[in-house]
Amino acid sequence: MAYTILIRAMASGGTTTVETLVKHPMDSGFVKGKDGKIIPGHYIEVIEFAHNGNIILTGYWGPAISKNPFSKFSFKGGKLGDTISVSWVDNKGEHTSTSAKIM
């Protein structure tokens, strides 16, 4: 499966707002498919956000998070041109990451 992360970071008045949309199935392991069999769990366990290489937020997710999760948070200290990066690891060991410049 092709995983993608869309990220946008905007600075305004000393605060930076980061928004992400992660393409991931986030299967809980509690739902049955059309064939009546349980769909195995497949979900993000850890997601990390970094500002210029320094981790600013770590999220511990699990099977209760929805498919293709959206997240949004703000922090103080970012400025135009700084780098925001996001990475995740799921319960199958799959992972991806991306980065963007603050606008």
Secondary structure topology:
Elements: E1 4-12, E2 15-23, E3 44-51, E4 54-60, E5 70-76, E6 83-90, E7 95-101
Antiparallel strand pairs: 1-2, 2-5, 3-4, 3-6, 6-7
Walkthrough of the structure:
It contains no helices and 7 strands. It is mainly beta and 103 residues long. It has one domain: Immunoglobulins (Immunoglobulin-like), CATH 2.60.40.10. A hairpin with a 4-residue loop joins strand 6 and strand 7. The two termini are 30 Å apart.
What descriptors fit this protein?
single chain; 103 residues; mainly beta; Immunoglobulin-like; 4-stranded antiparallel beta sheet; 3-stranded antiparallel beta sheet; 0% helix; elongated
In the CATH hierarchy, the third-tier topology is known as Immunoglobulin-like
Query: What is the subunit arrangement here?
Result: single chain
User: Strand order, biggest sheet?
Assistant: 4-3-6-7
Secondary-structure-based class equals mainly beta
- Low-confidence runs (pLDDT<50, min 5 residues)? none
Average residue-wise pLDDT: 96
Order of helices and strands: EEEEEEE
- What is the helix tally? 0
Kindly, what is the distance between the CA atoms of the first and last residues, rounded to a whole number of angstroms? Answer: 30 Å
Percentage of helical residues? under 10%
Number of domains: 1
Query: What profile does the largest beta sheet have?
Result: 4 strands, antiparallel
Q: What overall geometry do the principal axes of the alpha carbons give?
A: elongated
Text of the CATH class: Mainly Beta
Question: What is the radius of gyration computed over CA atoms, rounded to a whole number of angstroms?
Answer: 15 Å
CATH architecture: Sandwich
Strand content: over 45%
CATH superfamily: Immunoglobulins
Number of strands: 7
